[in-house]
């Protein structure tokens, strides 16, 4: 899908055992103790994480967006009742019970944040990225959305309005990015490949077909 971009508050590179944050070290220690006591199976945990990272989540959301791009009736349904429209594709579950879809246009760009905690639509976007849960993103996305987007490499025209949506425990959002140009001949499967996780949060745009040539 898309190349990973570091967001506000996210460290560059990957953590290794000798460079764990305090929280990561505590989680690792707890996992070790529970494994030694036979209370958890690391393989089962890895399977759950893999499910949310690769099987549910971004791929599901990409299918929702691709269908909205291809099917005007579905797009209209998604605007009116995102929860039902998304559920019709089989994507329901934890932290995705109540959804609203917001559509990017040539005049408006939408950005999603959760200022109070890290509410995130797992059923359509999978596990939230580290930066989404970080205080710098949660606070600055509201007060300086244009600056935050620039840090993701997304520099929008000054005349384009940026609208920030604050997720809550009761309502979560999905950004429907603008459909890339020169994609009229693409089917839903091909279109879904152009939809990135970041574009469905609002910190990125959909990919152009040239990205796969």
Automatic annotation (TrEMBL):
Binding site for Fe(3+): 114, 117-119
EC number: 4.2.1.84
Ranges where the Nitrile hydratase alpha/Thiocyanate hydrolase gamma domain occurs: 22-203
NCBIfam families in alphabetical order: nitrile_alph
Protein family per UniProt: Belongs to the nitrile hydratase subunit alpha family.
The protein's name in its UniProt record: nitrile hydratase
Origin superkingdom: Bacteria
GO molecular function terms listed in the Swiss-Prot or TrEMBL record: nitrile hydratase activity; transition metal ion binding
Native organism: Sinorhizobium medicae
